[in-house]
Amino acid sequence: MKLVITIVQDEDTNKLIQKLNENKFMATKLASTGGFLKTGNTTVFVGVEEEKVQDVIDIIKSVCKTTKQMSLLNQPIASMTEGYISYPIEVTVGGATLFVIDVEQYLKI
């Protein structure tokens, strides 16, 4: 058995859970926050038999797409002890980050 841990943007969560459920995959979701953009994410956990892992990955790929957006980067000003200057940078957002790990033991009590 494997555990697929997927981090997705909040706006993709409902569609992803719906698609997983339509394909008979049960999922657990947790709210999370990204460290770079400080925006809301959702971490989705799916326990699945090893032969079904690629099916789960294919569903995630079909739902979670990347886009580009402008974000403000706060850069410290070297000559000031306290102060930052913000300037826009283009970043790629969306898509999904996946971890597939072995499950040593699975119990449903």
UniProtKB/TrEMBL annotation:
SUPFAM superfamilies tied to this protein: GlnB-like
Pfam families according to UniProt: CdAMP_rec (PF06153)
Alphabetized InterPro entries for the sequence: CdAMP_rec (IPR010375), N-reg_PII-like_a/b (IPR011322), N-reg_PII/ATP_PRibTrfase_C (IPR015867)
Entry protein name: Uncharacterized protein YaaQ
Source organism per UniProt: Natranaerovirga hydrolytica
Organism taxonomic ancestry: Bacteria, Bacillati, Bacillota, Clostridia, Lachnospirales
